[in-house]
Amino acid sequence: MTKIIGLTGGIASGKSTVTNYLRQKGYQVIDADQVVHDLQAKGGKLYQALVSWLGSAILNEAGELDRPKLSQLIFSSQEYLAKSSQLQNAIIRQELADRRGQLAKTEEIFFMDIPLLFEQDYADWFDEVWLVYVNPETQVERLKQRNGYSQEEAKQRLASQMSLSQKCQLADKVIDNSGDLKQLQAQIEQQLKGLEG
């Protein structure tokens, strides 16, 4: 029986680090952000849907989606955020379901990294949900370093997501990424043992 583990966290919580480690250990990981990236590539299903909705103003000179411009536009109002979610979610959910079905045929254990796992009601897809946790102050600092955001922009991004403390209550397992890489890897190893046992 295949075990499918959902992996989630908040922006800048360190999910990518966990995902990379799992891949190094030989596990397959479906990365929802990568799936979205593929669908938003020129000619992809999301690309077509977004251009139909927002017009060619969201494209760069090469005719590809101008991500910063698109992101700024979508986050500029609740109405745009809601419409964007509605438009994109159905397409993304179908693609993720297809990829999940494919991997379930060949893998005993695999992971799906979905940032908005709880917000978009994916929890019932999984045998377990693992949450990568860091405190909000660390998230803000990492966002400022990684994306060059101001304090205000970083807090705004965090405010647009469900808080990690709320997600902790919903997750089956919590991996605390407040420490160093060694501590993080030790926690992942412990969870993997539990899965394979």
UniProtKB/TrEMBL annotation:
Its primary localisation, in coarse terms, equals cytoplasm
Q: Where in the cell is it found?
A: Cytoplasm
Q: Which GO terms describe its biological process?
A: coenzyme A biosynthetic process
Q: Which enzyme class, named as a word?
A: transferase
Specify which residues bind ATP according to the UniProt entry for this protein. Answer: A12, S13, G14, K15, S16, T17
Q: What superkingdom does the record give?
A: Bacteria
What Enzyme Commission number(s) appear in the record?
Answer: 2.7.1.24
Position of the signal peptide: none
| Pathway it works in | Cofactor biosynthesis; coenzyme A biosynthesis; CoA from (R)-pantothenate: step 5/5
- Keyword Cytoplasm on this protein? yes
Report keywords, A-Z: ATP-binding, Coenzyme A biosynthesis, Cytoplasm, Kinase, Nucleotide-binding, Transferase
One Gene Ontology CC term in the entry: cytoplasm
Name the SUPFAM superfamilies on file: P-loop containing nucleoside triphosphate hydrolases
GO MF term (any one): dephospho-CoA kinase activity
The Swiss-Prot or TrEMBL record describes its family as follows: Belongs to the CoaE family.
What name goes with this protein?
A: Dephospho-CoA kinase
Organism (species): Streptococcus macacae NCTC 11558
